[in-house]
Design a protein that fits this description.
Helix content: 55-70%
Order of helices and strands: HHHHHHHH
Oligomer: single chain
Strand content: under 5%
Number of helices: 8
Shape: flat
Largest sheet: none
Low-confidence stretches: 1-37
Structural class: mainly alpha
Length: 202
C-alpha cells in the first residue's frame, strides 16, 4: 500500500439489490424502509448506519482493551479481546447454522435470526486481533481512536485484502496532518488514482 493510498476516498460502497434486501427478512425489516423496497437510497442509508454502529461499538471495545494492554500485558485480558472478536464473528456467520442444528437436535421451534453478514467481517476481525497482539507486544503504540477507527474502516483494503497490520498503516495515518501544500498534493494524487480506478471499472 502506498502513502498516497491513505488519501484516496475511503468510501463505504455498499451495493444493495432486491436479493440483499430480501435477506433482511420481515423480522429485521426497518420500519422506515418501504415494503416494496423501491427506495434504494433509504435502504443504503439504513445499512450504512447499521454498519457504522457495529464498527463503532466493536472498535470502542477493542480500543479500550488495547488501552489496558499498554499498561498491563495480561494474557487473560488479551484472551478476552480475542474471544470477543471471535464471538462476534461467530454470531454473524454461524447463528443460523447453530439455531438450525439446535432445532434438529432438540426438536425446538427456534426462529432463525437470518443475520445479514457485514462486508469484510472476517478481515476486520483478524486485523483487530493483530492490533491487540501488536499493542500487547509493544510493537506499535496504540495511537488515538480516530487513527484506529480509520484503520478499521479503511474501505480500500476491506474487500480485496491482504490483512494489513496496524503498525504498517499507522505511520501513513500519522502523516495525514502534514503542512497544507503536501496535504493538497496528497489529496489531488489520491483523487486522481481513485478516478483512474473508477474509469477502469466502467
Amino acid at each position: 500500500m502506498t502513502h498516497n493510498a491513505v488519501f484516496e476516498l475511503p468510501l463505504f460502497c455498499i451495493f444493495v439489490d432486491n436479493d440483499c434486501c430480501a435477506r433482511l427478512g420481515r423480522a429485521h425489516r426497518p420500519t422506515s424502509l418501504p415494503s416494496d423496497y423501491d427506495s434504494l437510497l433509504v435502504g443504503v442509508l439504513w445499512l450504512v448506519t447499521r454498519r457504522l454502529r457495529l464498527d463503532s461499538c466493536r472498535a470502542g471495545v477493542n480500543f479500550a482493551i488495547a488501552t489496558r494492554l499498554e499498561k498491563n500485558r495480561s494474557k487473560a485480558l488479551f484472551g478476552c479481546g480475542v474471544a470477543f472478536n471471535l464471538l462476534l464473528l461467530g454470531v454473524f456467520k454461524y447463528a443460523d447454522f447453530a439455531v438450525a442444528n439446535g432445532n434438529s437436535l432438540f426438536h425446538a421451534g427456534w426462529t432463525l435470526p437470518h443475520i445479514v453478514l457485514p462486508l469484510a467481517l472476517s478481515f476486520i476481525t483478524f486485523e483487530q486481533i493483530s492490533f491487540l497482539s501488536d499493542v500487547r507486544s509493544k510493537k506499535v503504540a496504540r495511537g488515538d481512536f480516530l487513527q484506529y477507527f480509520a484503520f478499521v474502516t479503511f474501505f480500500l483494503k476491506l474487500i480485496v485484502g491482504p490483512i494489513i497490520r496496524y503498525r504498517e498503516l499507522l505511520p501513513q495515518l500519522s502523516c495525514a496532518g502534514v503542512n497544507s501544500s503536501e496535504r493538497v498534493f496528497h489529496w489531488t494524487t489520491g483523487l486522481c488514482l481513485f478516478c483512474f480506478a473508477l474509469f477502469k471499472k466502467w
